[in-house]
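Support reply, case 0932

Customer input (verbatim):
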Amino acid sequence: MTTRVRLCALCAVIVITAEAGRFVSATQKQTFKRVVSERKFYLKDKDRVVVLPIRIHDLTIDGQQRALGPAIGPTGDGIEKMPVEPDAIFDAEDNSFIERIRFRVTNQSKKNIKYIRFNIHFFTLDRRLSTDNTVVIAGPDLVATLYFGRYPMPKESSDKAPLEPGQTVTMAIDSMPEDRLKAMRFDISQLKKEILRVAIHTDRVTFEDGSEWVDA
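Our regenerated output:
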């Protein structure tokens, strides 16, 4: 075999190996298990269960119905150990799934609601050691805000508020104004970690009569 032929054969082997490597890399792209839950700061108040004025339900990711994971408390401690129903777990290759989260909100109070503020908490579930070497979660790595209505709600608004008792509205993270979406995307990119838990926290509900419900 001449030198030229040997070089051509070697080049062919290199090209085939490179293409095979790319194929394996593409087919073996890693996915991560994700869960979306509610977050409730006041789970109990003087030994009675706190009833929220709204109910969050019908969660979808990429149009697929998912169950909500177990509720996360105010500290976020131990969420990596919470038992999760299989219907609440879904796969996603990267953090872009955040923008495809949808959930429905029903007014279960007896008043018209003109404004709701949701804080969307993102957890990467990094294990961090405290001073006594126990594993803790030091709160969410990032928080984004999603609104229903405006605060205060102007009379001439064309928004869907007020939300009357028993009425339901769909909330979508990608319905945020484009400038806030861009800011959220940038902040998530700076994490350089996979978001494994998302928690929807109903932070404030304002009623048409001016009264408020706050979970802070």
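We compared this against your earlier run and they match. Two observations from our side: Residues 31-214 form one domain. The chain is about 20% helix and 35% strand. Please reopen the case if you see a mismatch on your end.
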